[in-house]
From TrEMBL:
It comes from Asparagus officinalis (Garden asparagus). It is found in: Membrane. The keyword Kinase does not apply. PANTHER family: FI16602P1-RELATED, LIPOPOLYSACCHARIDE-INDUCED TUMOR NECROSIS FACTOR-ALPHA FACTOR. The chain crosses the membrane at residues 47-65. It is a peripheral membrane protein. Its main location: membrane. This is LITAF domain-containing protein.
């Protein structure tokens, strides 16, 4: 599903055709100020995180702590102009039972 030429991390000036915004800072071209680089990610607790906290078999692992923010919503901002460029919302509480999908890498497709 992910093409072999996908760019992770700093694009270093490579023109980007499309960015997939996930959990990690994403390589992107800002549509507002034209700069390229990595987005700044801010998190917010999601329903999935709250559900995970209440699951008895996850006792002791609280997904509402910032260090366990893999189930949180992620909002991507431009580091240059502070505009929000994308959101990645974990709106599906079923995600809780699918650990491989807890943290997905952001990537971009070069033009
Ligand atoms: Zn910008």
């Amino acid at each position: 599903m992910i093409p072999p030429n996908a760019v992770y991390g700093d694009p270093k000036g490579v023109p980007i055709q499309q960015t997939m915004y996930r959990d990690t800072p994403a390589p992107f071209n800002c549509v507002y100020c034209g700069s390229s680089g990595l987005t700044t990610v801010r998190s917010k607790p999601s329903l999935a995180a709250a559900v995970a906290c209440m699951m008895p078999f996850m006792l002791g692992v609280c997904f509402l702590c910032p260090s366990m923010d893999c189930l949180w919503h992620k909002y991507h901002y431009c580091p240059s102009c502070q505009q929000k460029v994308a959101d990645f919302e974990k709106s599906d509480p079923c995600l809780v039972v699918d650990p491989p999908r807890w943290k997905e890498e952001s990537f971009a497709l070069p033009a």
